[in-house]
Write a structure and sequence with these properties.
The protein is α+β, with helices and mostly antiparallel strands and 344 residues long. Helices cover 30% and strands 32% of the residues. The chain has two domains: 107 residues, no CATH class; 134 residues, Jelly Rolls, CATH 2.60.120.
Length: 344
Amino acid sequence: MARKFSGEASSEELAELQVLLSAHPDFNRLQNALSEFPKWDNDVVDNITDQAYASQYVKMMYADEKDTSATLSMDHLPKRKEVTTLLLWRIGAVAASLFIILSLVHIFSSNNKTTILADSDGVSNNKKTDTRSNLTLPDGTIVYLNTNSHLEYDDRFNKKERNVTLTGEAFFEVTHNPEKPFIVHTDKAAIKVLGTKFNVKSYDNESWETTLLEGKIEMNLNERPKEKLQLQPSQKVSITDLQTSDQQKEEYKVSITKIKPLNNDVVETAWMADKLIFVDKPMEEIAKELERRFGVSVVFLSGKTKQYKYTGAFQNDNLTQILKILDMTQPIQYELKDNVLMIQ
C-alpha cells in the first residue's frame, strides 16, 4: 500500500495487492483511510515512525508469547534507529502514515467489549472498585467507574437535587431532569448538569479533567467559587496543580481544549473499552495508568525518565509487551519484581 500511494508500485505489485485485499477484506478499510490521509510535515515523521514501527514490530513478534516476565535485555531486537532509517529510505513519508495505522489496526479492530460488574447497593451508595464497574442511580443515571474509583450519594439524592461525590474516574450518562440538577462534587470542582454525557477524572496527585461528549455542563472551582466555566460538546477542561504548601493556598492552571478523537476513539474515555491510549504523554503520567491497570507500584530511579513522552495505543497487551514497545520507542531500563516496576 505504501508503494502504491507513493507511486512506486509496479503493475505486478498492484495486481498482487488486489489479490491480498480480496483475501483479507478487513484491510480495505486501511486502504480507504490511507487514500484520505493528510500529508505530514517531515519534521514529525521521524519520531512518529519510530513509535509506529516499534508498536507493530513488537505486536507481531510477541503475538503468541506467553512469557510475562520483564527483562532489561533488548539485544535480540533490531535497533530502533536502524530500522527507522531503512524504512524511511525505502518508502518515504507515506510509509509513516501506513505504519501508524498498521500499528493501530489490530487494536481498533479487536473485540470492543468491556466487562461490567453490576451494582445493587440501593439508594445509599459508598462504592469503591478495584476493577471497572457500573451502577444505575435511583434517577436512572448510569455511571461507569474506572479502577480505584469511589462514588457516594445519600438518601437525599433525587429529592431537590441529585448530588454525588466522586474520587477517581467515572463516565456519566445523566438522565435529563431540568427540575433536579445533577451535581458531581470532586476535590477541585463541582460540575452541574441537567442531562448529558461526560467523563470526570479526579485521582489524587494527578491532573484533574472533565471531558464533555454531549449536552452542556457548568463548573465551579472549589478555590474560586465566584468563577464559572461552561463546556460545549467535544471540549475538555484540565486543572493542574502549580504549587502546594502548608502556608499557601493551592494554585491551579486551568485550560480548556478541544478533544481530538483517534480512529473514532476518544482518548479520555478509552478506558471504558479496555484500551490504553497515550498521545505525547510523559512517562510519569503513563506510570499511573499502568499502576491502575496492572496493580503494580512504579518507582522511578531517575527524574529524567519521568519526562520521556510517548504516543501509542494498546488493547489486550500485557504489561511486559507494553514496556517492550515503550523501550523501543524511547529506550528505558526497567525491572519488574514482586509487583514493583523499577524504571531507571
